[in-house]
Amino acid sequence: MSTEIQAWFLGRLPDDWFNEPAEVTTDREEIIVIGTLPPPESAQDAVPPDAMAEGRIKRFREDTRARRIDIAGEAERKFGRKVAWGARCGSVTEVFTTLSVPVMTRLRQSERRVLDTLVDAGVARSRSDALAWCVRLTGEHADAWLAELRDALRRVEEVRSQGPQGS
User: Fold this and answer.
1) Are 31 and 24 in contact (CB under 8 A)?
2) Cα 81 to Cα 27: distance, rounded to the nearest angstrom
3) DSSP E strands: which ranges in the chain?
4) pLDDT tens string 76-105
5) Which residues of the chain have pLDDT under 70?
6) Is the pTM of this model over 0.85?
7) Left, alpha or beta for 65 (phi > 0: left; psi -120 to 50: alpha)?
């Protein structure tokens, strides 16, 4: 389904919005579409490029709001998932309004103690924040492995879509 969603967005998005095809990522609840904007050309060397990039992203967000809402509405009806948007410009990336979804988990005492230590140390405000922090940290350090796993899952999805269709 993720290749269908990606293809739909690549066909639906206006050609003049981004420099290159948008990055479309999905999970069970949400679709995130991040496009790359042209880098700002600084008229003065003293102008910080990140500040110009932030301004360009803000302008894109405001100028395209109505069309993004329309496209998101179509996608939400078609795919049954919420849509979040983002933009990348130079070294700056911003995602606009993304979901924060509760996830139920069962943890043993030793695992809860890890979370409590993070809370007690001020690394996180709550067990929920501590768990999110652990997931982000794991994701950062396991990026290559997770990317390979996601690629394998995409290949499985492609093979399934080419197989016989159920009745």
Assistant:
1) yes
2) 9
3) 23-26, 30-36, 82-89, 92-96
4) 999 999 999 999 998 899 999 888 888 888
5) 1, 42-47, 166-167
6) no
7) alpha
